[in-house]
Amino acid sequence: MITVGHCGYDSKHRTHLEMRRPCGTPDYTLLLVKTNAFFSIKGERMLTLPGTVILYDKNVPVHYGSTGLLFNNDWIHFLPDETDLPFLLGLEIPFSTPLSLPYMAQLSEYARMIVIEKHTDHPYREQIINSLMHALLYSLASQLKDPEDKVMTNKYYPVMNDLRMSILNTPHKKWTVEAMAEYVHLSPSYMQHLYRELFGISCIQEVIQARLGTARFYLRTTDISVQSIAALCGYDNELHFMRQFKKFTDMTPSQYRSSLPPTT
After folding, report:
1. I need a surface site. Which of 4, 100, 207, 208 has the fewest CB within 10 A?
2. Beta bridge partners of 71
3. How confident is the model at residue 55 (pLDDT cuts 50, 70, 90)?
4. For residue 69, what is the domain's CATH number?
């Protein structure tokens, strides 16, 4: 179990900040820094850019601060118990080392959820926080294992990935090229080029595959009519849905449903 103590999300200090803890703290400290900053490590002052993470070990000197008028970060003090300490150490995240990340937003979202859970009161709060801490640390370690991932270092990756998640979660929406380009504030031609470059599939093919995946799910798990499934998946025309389904599966929706083993 990983227990979280003090924590904060998107904390903003609009005056110069300098944090000194000569003896550190009795727990581990994770900082996700979203603005320019400095860190003093063993007497050496290091300047860092937005998107820097640092994990402090227990009881080690801590000295960091802002280099401008704004300091913005997420911060979590946590302690793993004896069963989870090997997990933390096994991830091989360097201690007291400022590290630049290609995709801070995902980690920050975990921090946001952890802070929310910390300030709620329900029977499974500690279990949820424990799970979120595991996810956050796994995600951090994953980024550090492959820091040169060209996809995630692309400056448009966060907004393009947000578009992709929206398509996959709501394939029934009217996803035209123009609507997708407006979503990410890019020209239609550049958005299409970028989508294929980042995700290895065209944006329109992504929509089609997401809709057909949803259709197969409904055909497998419900007795909803083909016409209703077509509408649920974003098709205005049942015939168009049936043709597209057959093109990609070599079966009509009804044939696909009939080919499934009976459920018990």
Report:
1. 100
2. 13
3. very high
4. 2.60.120.280
